Each structure stands twice: as structure tokens, then as C-alpha cells.
Amino acid sequence: MNTLDDLSTTQQNIILGSIIGDGMLTHIPTKTKGIRSTYSEHFSIQQKDYRAWKVMKLEPYLSFSHKGNVISSRVNDLWRELEDDFYSNKEEGKSRVKKLPKHRLAHLNDLHSLATIYMDDGSLMLTTRLNHNNKKIFITPHIALYLQNFTYEELKSLREQINNLTLADFTLTKRPDGNGYYLRTNRTADTLLFLQDIHPITITCPAMSYKTNWQYRFYMETQKWLCKYPEYELITSSRDRMRLYTPEEIATLIDMKQKGCTIQHIADRLGRSYWSIVYKTQDLRNQSFM
Q1: How high is the pLDDT of residue 246?
Q2: How many CA atoms lie within 13 A of 22 on its CB side?
Q3: Mind listing the pLDDT tens digit for each residue in 118-134?
Q4: H-only helix segments in the chain
Q5: At residue 1, does pLDDT exceed 80?
Q6: Angstrom distance (rounded) from CA 186 to CA 142
């Protein structure tokens, strides 16, 4: 394996996403071929199933080490090339700094890269708001990509590349650590769209369902909150849900559902989000309108 072109598109994107995320490239002196490099990832036992997914996807280039909590590669020319691109030159008394080279970001051309970055360094954050008068609990989900060790300009370039892969909008948001910024979604619609876009990939890795499967996560949150407030209703909060449906929109929704149209088709027709249609359909069924 000498270049990225020796790998499939899926493998290329998982490797690049992993280097941006948890992966580490290290140079090793060899007796006959000079300085070469290797790839490795350290992980906790709780994430072993996820690393097994990576090893399976990147077979035969990655494998579990005898230590059990590390996956690593053999030395080869590609890792050395990538290390030169993704790391600054080491200065005496200072640690190496991982960077995001623009020409490598251009190779993030498949959602496997974005899914990998998220599963490595992302989180599905939840904020809650209780309305005791109406006995409702509003949950607002956000996607966070904790990449604050990269600079503002690097994250800006990454965000531009992300926009080529998904319509979910990420914003640069301030943090007190690292270089001061990370990427996150602000709207529920963007969060759910992102999870929907990467779903064909993440469904093959059930170990990460707690942050990739919204239906599962919402169910778990429901069980948790209902233990404390058994008579309350949990609702996913979004601005789109606050915009009331007109009688014409309701009639169109019912008509299109009866004709067998998909949720996404109805959403596109009404200018609503996918999940707004899901919740409104459920509401209409509860009221026996469908």
C-alpha cells in the first residue's frame, strides 16, 4: 500500500476521517528503508466493538494489537506520506501538532469520512426544557464535533468540505479549550438531517447507536424522564414544529399519505422538515383524522 489510490473510496474516507479523529501516525526508523510510519488508535474497552467495525472495513491494513486496546497497521509508505501532511514538524521541547491540510480535505468525498469523524470525536448533545403547565418535556438534539485542537481556519475549511457531503448546517462555536472553536449544529432539523444522511453507514455499527440512532436515543431518554415524570409527554423541540399547520397543509398531508407518498416527498411539497411531517402524521392519527 503506497498511496490512497490503492484503497477503495470507502477505505480512503474512513482512514482520512480516522486521522482527523482518534488516529495517530508515528514514524519508526527501519534498518533498510529509513524512516517509515505506522498508524494506531488507542481506545477504551467500551469502544472495542466500534474499533472492530473499523478493522473489518479496513482489512487487511489494520488489526488489533496483542495489548487488546490498540488497533494498528504495519509500516508502509502511505502512512509516512500522510504523517508528513497531517503533522507539523516537531520542534525541540514541543509536541507535534496535528493539522488539516486543504489538499487532503478535498479527498473527503464520501459520507464514510464524516461518519467516522463523528463516531470518533462527535457527540449527540441533548438540552431539555420542562413545561409543567402542559406536562411536556421538550428535547433539543445537537451534533457536536469536538475538533477544537484544530485552528479556526482549519475548521472553516473542514466545514466547507462537510457542506459538499450533507445539507446539514454546522457552525463554528466557541469553546474555552484547545484553539477555541468546535463544530456543531444549532437547529434540530440539521441534527436529524445529519443523522439521516450518515444512517446507511452507521446502521452497520450498532455499538454506536447511542449517538447515531435518534429513534433509539429518544426512546432511552423517554424511559429516563418518564421514571421521574410518568404523566409527561416528551417532544423533540424545533422551530419548524412551532409553526402551525394550515388547514390546506393538513388536507394535503392527509391526501398524499393516502396516496402512498413518502414522508420526504410530503416534506418537500409542504416545505417542512422530515421529522415535522412524522410528528404531524402521528398527531393526526391520534386525533383519528387518518
Answers
A1: 87
A2: 20
A3: 999 999 999 998 989 88
A4: 9-20, 48-57, 77-86, 102-105, 111-121, 152-162, 188-202, 209-212, 214-228, 239-242, 247-258, 263-270, 274-286
A5: no
A6: 6
For the 4-93 domain, the top CATH level (class) is: alpha beta
- How far, in Å, CA of 120 to CA of 113, rounded? 11
Q: Where in the chain is the domain with CATH 1.10.10?
A: 240-286
* Cα gap 83→27, rounded to integer Å: 8
Alpha carbon 67 to its chain's center: 28
CATH class of 115-236: alpha beta
Q: What is the phi/psi pair of residue 221, to 5°?
A: -65, -40
Enter the C-alpha cell of residue 4: 490512497
- Residues 212 and 119: beta-carbon distance below 8 Å: yes
Which span out of 23-32, 150-159, 274-283 was modeled with the highest average pLDDT? 150-159
Q: What is the CA radius of gyration of the chain?
A: 22
| 181 SS3 class | strand
DSSP H helix total and E strand total for the chain: 13, 9
b/e sequence 11-44, b meaning 16+ C-beta within 10 Å: bbbbbbbbbbbbbbbebeeeeeeeebbbbbbebe
Q: Is the pLDDT of residue 93 over 70?
A: no
> Per CATH, is 240-286 categorized as 1.10.10?
yes
Please name every residue paired with 129 in a beta bridge, in sequence order, or none if there are none.
138
Q: Write down the mean pLDDT value for the chain.
A: 90
DSSP state of 177: S
Domain with CATH 3.10.28.10 in the chain: 115-236
